[in-house]
Amino acid sequence: MINIILILLILLIVLVMIMLVYMFTGNIEARAPREIVKQYKLNEYEYNYRKVFTIEAENDKKTDKVILYLHGGSYVADLYREHWEFFKDLIKDTGCTIVVPDYPLTPKYKYSDVFGMMLPLYREIVKKVEKENLIVMGDSAGGGIALALMEEAGREDLMQPKNLILISPWLDVTMSNKEIDKVQKNDKMLNKKALMLAGIAYAGEGGMEKFLVNPINGPANKLENVTIFTGTYDILNPDVHKFKEIAEKQNVEIDIRETKGAAHIWIIKKYVDKKYDDEKAKKAYDELIDILNS
Question: CA 240, 243, 245, 247: dihedral to nearest 10 degrees?
Answer without folding.
Answer: -130
